[in-house]
Amino acid sequence: MQDHIVVLTGAGISAESGLSTFRDNGGLWEQHSVYDVATPEAFARNQELVLRFYNDRRRQLASAQPNRAHQLLAELEQRYRVTVVTQNVDDLHERGGASNVIHLHGELTKARSSKYPELVYDIGYRDINPGDTCDRGAQLRPHIVWFGEEVPMLDKAAEVVRTADHLLIVGTSLQVYPAAGLVYEVDRDVPITVIDPGEPASVSRARFIRKGAVEGVAEWVAHYL
Length: 225
Description:
The relative contact order is 0.18. The radius of gyration is 18 Å and the shape is elongated. The chain is an alpha/beta fold and about 220 residues long. The chain has 2 domains: about 1-20 and about 65-105 and about 150-225, TPP-binding domain (Rossmann fold); about 20-65 and about 110-145, 2-Layer Sandwich (SIR2/SIRT2 'Small Domain'), CATH 3.30.1600. It is built from 9 helices and 9 strands. α6 (about 70-75) packs parallel to α9 (about 215-225). The strands form 2 sheets. It has a 6-stranded parallel sheet with strand order 3-2-1-7-8-9, with helices on both faces. Strands 5-4-6 form a 3-stranded antiparallel sheet. Its EC number is 2.3.1.286. Its main location: cytoplasm. NAD-dependent lysine deacetylase and desuccinylase that specifically removes acetyl and succinyl groups on target proteins. Modulates the activities of several proteins which are inactive in their acylated form. GO terms for molecular function: histone deacetylase activity, NAD-dependent; NAD+ binding; protein-malonyllysine demalonylase activity; protein-succinyllysine desuccinylase activity. Belongs to the sirtuin family. Class III subfamily.
């Protein structure tokens, strides 16, 4: 039976494809207040600003390309069962070849009804504008989990982590909850590797590779295989 490798990824892996992170120096939260662009209240208060913010993110994503870390993780599928659980809202894992990706915080390339959350639409890299509506007439919004909203894929992600034979963590500070709590769902005897050049939160018994995603994933893959 194939080993199950579960990969938890954060903004660090996408940063190496040129996508702006949110929390680092010069990141998006230094340029925009969370309360202006990433809460349900912000959308109710200034729909046009919120839509423009995510339209800009979508345009940036359209010009970005998956990097070697995305591709190496996808290539693992040739020999192992691999599930990527990502905090990122981009589609770089999928474009890099990954076939099994759980998006904890939503997806930029999708829109959903602001009134009927079960109505979700693939929009690619197109803008969402005021007046764009779902099939039932309600305004469309980004398919993003905003601050103050539940994380609907969290339970599914926790179930997946519990089945891991190896947990690989790439490009995340492990300081953003509830996603960071997934580390504690893994079985006690399952090895954990953290790849990040910074100082992520401490994880007991984890092996640390203090390198960027591309270099670190290459090192880990060479060691694991």
